[in-house]
């Protein structure tokens, strides 16, 4: 008999709903401590800086193109006969170069 009373909703008392699960706060810094960038709510993945065999050559090319500052030219691709480098300029632009067997050209 007691079980039949349990289905009757209590009058005037709102039903307790479980709180929505909390979403973790979005990260504001990358693992290296630099600020993260978001475009349309999507985090832009950062590539860790890696110096390559032709980093100095690409930095000289960048300087000729008016790109200075930042960490310098970092290797974006895997090391090998063809490598791609990226350099962040102080004016906000990005200089990229492709090196084939240590012969580098701006992209």
Task: Outline the structure in words.
This protein has two helices and six strands, in the order αββαββββ. The mean pLDDT is about 80. It is α+β, with helices and mostly antiparallel strands. The chain has a domain at about 45-105. The strands form two sheets. It has a four-stranded antiparallel beta sheet. A two-stranded antiparallel ribbon has the order 1-2. It has helices at about 1-5, 55-65; strands at about 40, 40-45, 75, 80-90, 95-100, 105.
A few lines on this structure:
With 107 residues, the chain is of the alpha+beta class.
Find the count of extended strands (DSSP E, 2+ residues).
6
Report the structural category. alpha+beta
Q: Mean pLDDT across all residues, rounded?
A: 80
* SSE succession: HEEHEEEE
Distance between the termini: 82 Å
Beta percentage is 15-25%
> Which outline best applies?
elongated
**In terms of per-residue confidence, which ranges show pLDDT below 50 for 5 or more consecutive residues?**
none
Read across the widest sheet, the strand sequence of neighbours is: 3-4-5-6
Largest sheet: 4 strands, antiparallel
Q: What is the count of DSSP helices, taking H or I runs of 4+ residues?
A: 2
User: What is the rounded Rg?
Assistant: 27 Å
């Amino acid at each position: 008999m007691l079980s039949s009373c349990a289905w009757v909703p209590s009058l005037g008392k709102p039903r307790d709903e479980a709180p929505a699960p909390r979403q973790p706060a979005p990260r504001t810094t990358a693992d290296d401590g630099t600020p993260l960038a978001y475009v349309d709510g999507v985090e832009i993945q950062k590539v860790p800086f890696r110096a390559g065999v032709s980093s100095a050559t690409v930095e000289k090319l960048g300087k000729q193109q008016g790109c200075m500052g930042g960490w310098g030219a970092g290797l974006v691709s895997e090391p090998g006969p063809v490598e791609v480098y990226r350099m962040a300029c102080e004016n906000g632009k990005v200089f990229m170069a492709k090196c084939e067997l240590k012969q580098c050209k701006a992209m």
